[in-house]
Amino acid sequence: MRTTQDIYARYQEIRHLLPVSESIGKDRKIGSLLDIAEDIDAFIFDAFGVLNVGETPIEGAAERLDQLRERGCLIRVLTNAASYDRAAAIAKFQRLGMRLEDDEIITSRDATLQHLPPGKWGVIAAETDNLLDMPPSIRLHDDSDDFDAVDGFVFLSSANWTEAQQEMLEASLRNAPRPLFIANADLAAPRDDGFSREPGYFGCQVADQGTAQLRFFGKPFPEVYALADATLPGIAPHRIAMCGDTLHTDILGAAAHGWRTVLVTQDGLFTGLDANTFIQDSGIYPDWKLSRI
């Protein structure tokens, strides 16, 4: 999972787990989102690779959001980052210089927690996550007894998650199959020092074994799009555009939901590569593509 080719190949391997879209975009190249602002009422943005790379904001992104607002377009950020609760997510975008209101941010964590049934959950989370929005739970570390003591698992963050801990999770699920909720369906995310392995990567390892009642949340799965729709009443799907850097999550999921799609190529998964090769091989065609928003 060190290269774009590795990540893309793994997404192709798990296509049977992903939504299916009959939509085929026109794959038209544009210079900026201002070129299509008259055709779109609401722009939905992925974060990593579109607005920021790790803790570094992408040049011009904050200004473009303000320009689109001035054109009368609504703005939403739809992110698979589940390591933060809502307050921390808002604080992060403020640190990055993005002017975003509370109702403009939708996260895969929100979607996961809305569908979490009662029970005693084992949570895989960053150490900095206070878990205040979670039901009663056990934060999982290195004690195998904790893995065996819960009714199911919620995977919020892969920060500091180790292969040894993954082996304990898989062993516990083999011994007693239970639900596993993956709150971030991404396999990888662009960081300042390369690609990180995200919860979706580890969830797919479990899927390969068939030992859990597995459920993924976030793009490309439908629950998070429904959350976004609820904040955009009265706007027709073809007047909503999802802007993202990944074909199998951002573009496929939005197309399956009936939205328009924009592939952003300069700073995310396809940095330094010809995205057309991957588009044609996968058959996942965006409506538009551009370097930066």
Summed up, what is this model?
The protein has 293 residues and is α/β, with parallel strands linked by helices. Helices cover 32% and strands 20% of the residues. The protein has two domains: 4-110 and 222-290, HAD superfamily/HAD-like (Rossmann fold, 3-Layer(aba) Sandwich); 111-216, HAD superfamily/HAD-like (Rossmann fold).
CATH superfamily of the largest domain: HAD superfamily/HAD-like
Helix content: 25-40%
SS-based class:
alpha/beta
What is the CATH architecture descriptor of the largest domain? 3-Layer(aba) Sandwich
The pLDDT mean sits at: 94
Q: What's the end-to-end separation, in Å?
A: 26 Å
Fraction in beta strands: 15-25%
Give the overall shape: globular
pLDDT < 50 stretches: none
CATH topology of the largest domain: Rossmann fold
Please, how many helices? 10
Domains, number: 2
Please give the CATH class of the largest domain: Alpha Beta
Return Rg in Å.
18 Å
Outline the biggest β-sheet. Answer: 7 strands, parallel
Numbering strands along the chain, what is their spatial order in the largest sheet?
1-16-15-14-2-5-6
Q: What oligomeric state do the depicted chains represent?
A: single chain
Topology order in helix (H) and strand (E) letters: HEEEEHEHEHEEHEHEEEHEHEHEHE
Number of strands: 16
